[in-house]
């Protein structure tokens, strides 16, 4: 007799599976079609030489604005200049800034931020009160324009409108209700939840189908074994067993396993040879347990506050103990780790920090050229430094790694006459290809080795 096959049943299960897959795909497309807030794309032209932060909008001095660009610029300036000593809701070194414009007018805040010492010396009652209240801790003067200070105040005002826990205060509910970002987040969350539920249901259904098929197959085998009219081919197929040992003894399988093992050994050997002399992942124990996650991450202290020469020198200096004392003369003074700083100052000895990032002497590298002129963020080379409890070398810092960055990083040459002829010659020879660091000679040997 002909072999008995379960084609109608298998077709039914296949159709059921495809139905679930189609429903899942449709739901995913609906979730993707929901309006979402998109982050601004990076400009093809790259960064503008000489810029280290977003430019402040041309706002009228003495008046804040709710413009998103002004708030964004103010956030960048606040992080770079103010976050070391101030927070919106908490007292750090200086007072919390929530609702600062309700305590002092903008016309008072601008000269105070530019030169607080001058305002205190003038005898201003409020300025003297703040100065005495915070142990006569002198706020540094800032060389910021009125427009930049106004954008910082706009950012603080915007943050003041939010609840301390990160939500939105009642007076800002109406404004937020019409925000596409809020709608998009809600839609994305609902879509994600629906997809999770659908996937769980689909997995359960597939498991049930597998178990059902196994049970049906066993039942059919029992039925067939009881029949007397089966021919030799049917009996052979019915009694066939999966022989794992036969597959293992196959020359083809053994050859593939041996070849795969040889490739793995060769790959690991090459990787080991290529890694000689590299320090990626190097994470030494420092003499003082300093946490970048706490300082740069949670407290948002700008890198340049401690590494003062990062924007103006060939090297990014290791901060002196005096910089630590700007805050720790009043914060956590009883901490065992902070007492180590006190002892170093009393003994007039530098703290013996262990260097992590180190280039060979044959390679020339200038920090300011990359950070100030190129506008490169610290995280580009040092990784998520704001999340590191103990700093480690994130990037390989190899020549190939540097050259690839020079080949891929475009330069913003607009408005800079120095590049005019270079860009014309480049566009003539390369068409629409972007003008990169490499196009400006950034991969020539003499740039780094001389």
Automatic annotation (TrEMBL):
Domain Cytochrome c: 69-160
Keyword field contains Iron: yes
Keyword field contains Electron transport: no
Transmembrane segments: 197-220, 256-278
Keywords associated with the record: Heme, Iron, Membrane, Metal-binding, Signal, Transmembrane, Transmembrane helix
Region described as Disordered: spans on this chain: 160-187
One Pfam short name: Cytochrom_C
GO terms for MF: electron transfer activity; heme binding; metal ion binding
CDD domains hit by this protein: Cytochrom_C3 (cd08168)
Domain of life from the UniProt record: Bacteria
Signal peptide location: 1-21
Name listed for the protein in its UniProt record: C-type cytochrome
Organism: Hymenobacter aquaticus
């Amino acid at each position: 007799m002909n072999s008995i096959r379960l084609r109608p049943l298998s077709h039914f299960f296949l159709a059921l599976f495809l139905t679930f897959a189609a429903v899942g795909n449709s739901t995913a497309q609906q979730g993707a079609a929901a309006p979402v807030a998109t982050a601004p794309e990076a400009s093809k032209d790259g960064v503008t030489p000489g810029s280290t932060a977003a430019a402040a909008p041309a706002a009228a001095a003495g008046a804040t604005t709710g413009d998103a660009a002004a708030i964004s610029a103010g956030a960048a300036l606040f992080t770079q200049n103010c976050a070391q000593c101030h927070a919106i809701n908490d007292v750090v070194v200086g007072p919390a800034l929530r609702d600062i414009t309700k305590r002092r007018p903008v016309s008072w805040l601008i000269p105070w931020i530019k030169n607080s010492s001058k305002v205190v010396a003038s005898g201003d009652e409020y300025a003297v009160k703040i100065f005495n209240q915070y142990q006569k801790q002198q706020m540094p003067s800032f060389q910021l324009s009125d427009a930049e200070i106004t954008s910082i105040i706009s950012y603080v005002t915007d943050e003041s409108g939010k609840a301390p826990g990160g939500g939105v205060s009642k007076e800002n509910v109406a404004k937020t209700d019409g925000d596409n970002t809020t709608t998009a987040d809600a839609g994305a969350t609902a879509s994600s939840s629906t997809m999770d539920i659908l996937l769980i249901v689909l997995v359960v259904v597939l498991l049930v189908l597998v178990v059902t098929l196994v049970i049906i197959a066993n039942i059919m085998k029992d039925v067939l074994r009881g029949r007397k009219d089966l021919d030799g081919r049917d009996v052979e197929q019915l009694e066939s067993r999966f022989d794992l040992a036969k597959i293992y003894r196959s020359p083809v399988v053994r050859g593939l396993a041996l070849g795969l093992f040889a490739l793995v050994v060769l790959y690991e050997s090459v990787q080991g040879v290529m890694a000689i002399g590299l320090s990626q992942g190097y994470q030494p124990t420092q003499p003082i347990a300093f946490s970048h996650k706490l300082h740069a991450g949670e407290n948002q202290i700008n890198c340049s506050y401690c590494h003062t020469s990062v924007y103006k020198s060939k090297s990014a200096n290791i901060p002196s103990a005096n910089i630590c004392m700007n805050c720790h003369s009043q914060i956590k003074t009883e901490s065992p780790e902070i007492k180590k700083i006190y002892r170093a100052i009393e003994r007039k000895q530098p703290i013996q920090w262990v260097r992590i990032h180190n280039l060979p002497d044959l390679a020339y590298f200038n920090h300011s050229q990359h950070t100030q002129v190129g506008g490169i963020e610290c995280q580009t080379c040092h990784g998520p430094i704001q999340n590191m409890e103990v700093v480690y070398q994130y990037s390989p810092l190899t020549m190939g790694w540097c050259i690839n960055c020079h080949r891929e990083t475009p330069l913003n040459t607009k408005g800079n006459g120095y590049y005019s002829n270079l860009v014309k010659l480049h566009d003539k020879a390369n068409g629409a290809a972007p003008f990169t660091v490499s196009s400006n000679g950034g991969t020539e040997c003499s740039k780094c080795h001389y």
